[in-house]
Design goal:
The longest helix has 25 residues. The C terminus is likely disordered. This protein is an alpha/beta fold and 380 residues long. It is globular, with a radius of gyration of 20 Å. It starts with a helix and ends in a 13-residue tail after the last helix. It has one domain. It contains 13 helices and 8 strands.
Length: 380
Amino acid sequence: MLTLKYFDAIDQLQAADQSVLQSYPRDQLGYAAPEDALAQYVRAWLTERGARRDPVIVMVHGFEYDPSSAPAATPDSPFTSIYGLPPTVNYHLSWLPLVGECDQNGGNQSQNAIAFCYNSIGSLADVRAAGWINPYQHAVFDLAPRAARALASILVAVSEHAPIVRILAHSLGTRTTTQAMRLARARLPGTMDRIVMLDGAEYCVDAAATFIGCQCDVFNIANRKDSVLKWGGDQACDPIRGVGTIGACVVGYDGLGGNDRWTDLQLDNVLLRQWLAAGNAPDGNPYNIDPLAEEDSHPVAGLDHWACYTNDGNRAFVRDLLMSDVMTVPLMKQHGAPAGTDAPAYGMFNGKPIPPTPQTLLDRQRAFGIGNSAGVGGGG
């Protein structure tokens, strides 16, 4: 007798106090409207925050985080780094100063941000049971899309009541964000106006399918010096996204193009760096961006996958992309920002099919050439 335990499971969205705000049965795919508990929780937070014009910024982390980990016990918790409060956390690592939650010393604290947390790394036992070859495949094709359902509910709940809503996402978090936007975009009011993606691991064909015609700005901060995206994005997910194929290109390395409300800003583009340093951005401020890590606050800084938010110059630029009213995609283009990437496939992603993801254990074993002696075909 075969029991599909995966599809019998229920994912849960919890508040900081671990109270359940909404449940997501895995056998009910697609968009899930905010239920009463989530809607009431969001309204209560916004009421406490007060009638302010500052944008609410939803932060979406990337790969290898486990929010259930005790912050003091393990680096897997996002609260020991990007969601941590300076000076307990090195301000170079923290996103809180970038979203107006505090200054770089942890002072002037405000209620500006929502820290969206999800389990983005599974145990090796989980990976094997789900039929993936490595933890990154599990995160990309399983964990991130599942988390996107909860993120979509949050975005709709917040956008219905906050005056301005924006998103900051890094790496795998850009896939979670894109998948959430695909679910929620038809239900979002105009208050969702801007997304800033950093070194995005979302696939270009997926992003193109989601954001064509989308009515919010997307700033895509790309970096062709990023060793993580250069070597890990398609190779770790082969053969589901075959190495060197257009379906394996990712936005943080290859950019997107072909979208009026999306702009690709490549950190290692000399012309862009000179243009920003000269104060040509819509706000008139000079920005000294750098694709290479200037300091070693991140444990593997030399891979340059985190320089987008650790370097002081990059941090200033990202902060103003999130917080300034005049830093919009149309104005950036009007001011002549050198946009785009020098990727060979740049601008070729619109209308391209999204490669299918094997949905069952048996499908995955066949895709990877792995025998299935037990004959089990459950989902994973």
